[in-house]
TrEMBL record:
Belongs to the glycosyltransferase 2 family. InterPro entries: Glyco_trans_2-like (IPR001173), Nucleotide-diphossugar_trans (IPR029044). This is Glycosyltransferase. Pathway: Cell wall biogenesis; cell wall polysaccharide biosynthesis. Residues 7-131 form the Glycosyltransferase 2-like domain. It holds the Pfam family Glycos_transf_2. Keywords: Glycosyltransferase, Transferase. PANTHER family: GALACTOFURANOSYLTRANSFERASE GLFT2, RHAMNOSYLTRANSFERASE WBBL. Gene3D superfamilies: Spore Coat Polysaccharide Biosynthesis Protein SpsA, Chain A.
Amino acid sequence: MNDPRTTVVVITHNRRPELLRTLDRLAELPEQPEVFVTDNASTDGTSTAVALRHPQVRLVRPGRNLGAVGRNLAVRRVRSPYVAFCDDDSWWAPGSLSAAADLLDRHPALGAVTARIVVEPDGTEDPIVEELRTSPVPGPSWLPGPALGSFLAAATVLRTEAFRRAGGFHPRLWLGGEEELLAADLAADGWWLAYAEELTVHHCPSVVRDSTRRRRDGIRNTLWFTWLRRPVRPALRRTLHLARTVPRDAVSVTAFAEAAAAWPWIVRERRVLPPNVEERLRALEDSQRTSKARRYTG
């Protein structure tokens, strides 16, 4: 069942064993998608190992760790109408890429579709799936599933041109909640984002990760997105909410300090979202106040 409609893009940094496992799984997919790997300056022989074991994979080597922007570099080379992201510790289930492409074919105003996430090796659902399934974001009845205010890059298929026109991932955000800004810009361009229960991504969380830095960058990026795109009152309200709810520790203090230090370029790049998109974000924000799967508050 070769299906050339979707290209898979993976970013990696010093996770050679996990990446090779992911590429093995992707190579087994019936869709046989073209796969790009952006090696963000790994020093563990990642590129050499990929070239030897998966010579069909197209390697992108920027020479430094660009974080999420590594995805942008790969998408520039994508020729298919749709692009699926996954991380080096996750992979798509057989048939899900074709099912996602069918949904995007069927609904011209659908910009991105996010899959159910199954955590391995136990095969349990990620807690965030229930939030996707019960998303409070208002949307049109034609959507194939609940409307979303954001997406999870490692579990989402997007329209390639929509991604490019929205500018891809912002170069300053690096990694950690980097999807929120892009999702808002996609919505501002008129695209809808949705969850689709019939799609599945498997995630076997890597043990090679800097959770402290990820939490710090996640808080900082949430603040940056809020100040870049939200009207003054909602931005102030969300900033105060974060200040009250994040752990009172050095990581949070550093995150707020880094966010505040960026104020000059934030002011230059600030562009408030249209009211209809802000309405979706308010609905999502109200729901997240009671979320059990909050990413950056614990």
